[in-house]
Predict the structure of Mevalonate kinase.
Amino acid sequence: MEVRARAPGKIILSGEHAVVHGTAAVAASIDLYTYASLRFPTISDGDDALKLHLKDAGIEFSWPIEKIKDALPGSSSPVSSTPKPCPPDSLKSIAALAEEQNIPEAKIGLASGLAAFLWLYTSIQGYKPATMVITSELPLGSGLGSSASFCVSVAAALLSLSESISLDIGRQGWMSPDEDDLDLINQWAFQGEKIIHGKPSGIDNTVSTYGNVIKFKSGNLTRIQSQMPLKMLVTNTKVGRNTKALVAGVSERTLRHPDAMTSVFNAVDSISNELAIIIQSPALDDLSITGKEERIEELMEMNQGLLQCMGVSHAAIETVLRTTLKYKLASKLTGAGGGGCVLTLLPTLLSNTIADKVMAELESCGFECSIAGTGGKGVEICSEVSLDS
Ligand SMILES: Nc1ncnc2c1ncn2[C@@H]1O[C@H](COP(=O)(O)OP(=O)(O)OP(=O)(O)O)[C@@H](O)[C@H]1O
Ligand SMILES: C[C@@](O)(CCO)CC(=O)[O-]
Ligand SMILES: [Mg+2]
């Protein structure tokens, strides 16, 4: 028997970084997914290893189960039903298990993903041999929530083949887990995100788990019923960066300038609250949609200015802002910044000719443009009964 899970990436419409410090943020899922498939070997396979195959990177990692038992003697079987953080000692052992896989230098960023996988696997499945295969449509480390969708899809696949979630094996196709199962997946994914990010707010794993458009503040989720199309151009500057380091940088700036940064965070809180109200308020005609879009554009520009105050913009992001402004379009970075992706609102009445022109100009700078489908479903699970199971 094999189970597959898929979890979406996300865009943050307002409030990244400030949300780590307790203010409100608004995010939407996007129609790009990470897929995780899990399979236990049959006795005839005679396999006694845990394998993780990262298909896009073209790398397969393998750990003998005995080695995992030695390194993490605390992981019991039957396993924990309550999500728990990885203690520092276990994290050291896990980091050593990841390091000995000799990850190529150019892909060393994967080490934290491997560590999150090992913690989730041993916590949820204990010491069973298995193979997990991962594929992702998301660019890694670009602000579209690749780490969260990785953790959510891995947690969902692992929980589906545990006692914790009862999977409807007879059903065909993708299924949305029920609310309690979503809560459990989300809590485990958050533990994985902590290993990758250091101090995540939880917004990325939450929007990846529940989908749609959400407002998130201090760990609490409010679902938003969007009453307007949000057509967002996503420009990937292709400048690599790492969310953990950027989040730590903002925290250090906050320690140096606590009063100023508190004012910045409060301003972001107001922006996110106003944005959530605009998105939810009914739009009766084109005129009122245009009015709402103009207010959203202004809020996006204000949020971008505050992200610059936090020190998370980048020369490539500024190039995108300048380019889109030439066409009177508003943009802001999305996710952790420092490179990665930038959002530009494409208003409903914008002509296709202008949209094509701005994309062509951005691509001539070496950036990659795409239009995101926003606010779709969250994590889904699909079971397949194979003949040899
Ligand atoms: N498909 C994947 N396979 C293995 N590891 C992954 C995968 N996707 C993400 N990761 C892990 O997450 C890291 C990237 O996470 P990071 O939080 O820095 O960026 P992001 O999640 O894409 O952006 P943001 O957090 O700003 O939305 C990778 O370096 C890797 O360790
Ligand atoms: C930068 C940040 O606010 C969003 C990353 O997508 C970090 C977090 O909230 O965990
Ligand atoms: Mg991330």
In short: The first helix runs from residue 65 to 71. The pocket of magnesium ion (ligand 3) is lined by residues 145, 147-148, 197, 204, 243 (CB under 6 Å). The mean pLDDT is 94. Residues 8 and 33 are 4 Å apart (CA to CA).
